[in-house]
Amino acid sequence: KNQVEQSPQSLIILEGKNCTLQCNYTVSPFSNLRWYKQDTGRGPVSLTIMTFSENTKSNGRYTATLDADTKQSSLHITASQLSDSASYICVVSEKKSSGDKLTFGTGTRLAVRP
Amino acid sequence: DTGVSQDPRHKITKRGQNVTFRCDPISEHNRLYWYRQTLGQGPEFLTYFQNEAQLEKSRLLSDRFSAERPKGSFSTLEIQRTEQGDSAMYLCASSLSPWDRRYYEQYFGPGTRLTVT
User: Fold this and answer.
1) Does B42 contact A89 at a Cβ distance shorter than 8 Å?
2) Given CB 3.0 to 4.6 Å as the disulfide criterion, which of A10, A25, A62, B57 pairs with A92?
């Protein structure tokens, strides 16, 4: 069964600090991996999408890494801001003939305190 | 606003009542997806459409659930005889078709939060 596991479940950091969120997956065959940010009561918003050949991808203060051999990904947030408080969801896409099928992790809930 | 929109944003209903949600995707997107998200969990796939054709349904989509996309544009998700276990956020997303190089990106709407009392 395809699974996506994220850690930690929740995290509290002080404004300005860095943090790293982890994602392990067993989805196969692999198509791509995505990180989404979801504010409370809102829909997820894409931060980055990584394919098999990409090891690192940055989007502003967000940097995602992918190790397709160990099936692990991380999302690093630099110089956190209060607005970074949200759930961060790792999503892994399974390649199918009809198009990709997404498996969502349960998310890491990040709280940034002043 | 050219993003995915959903209506209503919140719905409170009594157990046993029927409810219907609407999703308007991004206009050029052929694919439309429905997901359900319960508190503290990630979204779970329910069903998706390629234009007006419903191509896949999850086992989560019981007989009480029905989704339509009659003209290949907006979609509706109806839940009949609601149960307390149906309480969740219902998310809609849209994307281009797999043969478009921009396909990978799914854009989510704000969701409809359903509370069944």
Assistant:
1) yes
2) A25
